[in-house]
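Sat 14:20. Reprocessing the chain from the morning session after the first attempt stalled halfway. Input below, unchanged.
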Amino acid sequence: MKTNKQYTLPSLPYNYNALEPYISEEQLRVHYDKHHVSYIKGANSIFEKLENARREKKDLDMGSILKKLSFNVGGHVLHSLFWENIDPKGGGEPSGKLLETIKEEFGNFDRFKEEFTRSTMAIEGSGWSALAYDIKTEKLLIMHIQLHNKDIYPTFPILMVLDFWEHAYYIDYKNEKEKFIDAFWNIVNWEEVNKRLENTMRV
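Finished this time. Tokens:
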């Protein structure tokens, strides 16, 4: 049955100033209220355009419109994951099944952290680093995502993401991008990342 549901902005699980000094209130407000909202509006607008074209039996440039839809939906989904895998009480090292699996795949946490940092710094222009899980091989994989929708491993559940678009860090860190990555490690919500892994392993 057809519904009128649309994408909506998820609630932040903390106050705007809660991530300071790692992410300032100004930075978070711009990122959340402006940039994330723009992807939601973009996706909802495209769905409306598709619906109108189908109702009115009009032709569309499907290549162009589906590319834009993928970009905007990807932006919304990744940002929604990002807000939940950072937390003012985060940081330190993971525990539980997540730490056990990291050690199995990377040898130790420091090696994982180094590889994830290098993956992020290698992003050309705008993109994301993500930790994903391959259910088939039971391996953790670092996913290097260009924009919001390129170089993604299809169907691999994402456990953790780091937004490395300029809008995520420029107010606080200007061009010192590596300092933003260093700050990220102080606010990672390992409990949430571990929960995502455990839920994935139950499937």
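The chain has one domain: 23-203.
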